[in-house]
Write a structure and sequence with these properties.
61 residues; two-stranded antiparallel sheet
Length: 61
Amino acid sequence: MAKACSFAKFQTQLKFSARARSRCERCGRTRGVYNKFSLCRVCFRDLSLKGEIPGVTKASW
């Protein structure tokens, strides 16, 4: 988990909009973020396996 001071730093307004980076809402991770859910792949997998994201099921074929 990211530190509280890191989350505060993420919330500040950037000087240039091109510097904006999509981050996970849960842990603050910058890589592997699904914009539709605003979660990283790790958090998305954890929450989907627990059934906490509605409409998402594990694929089986």
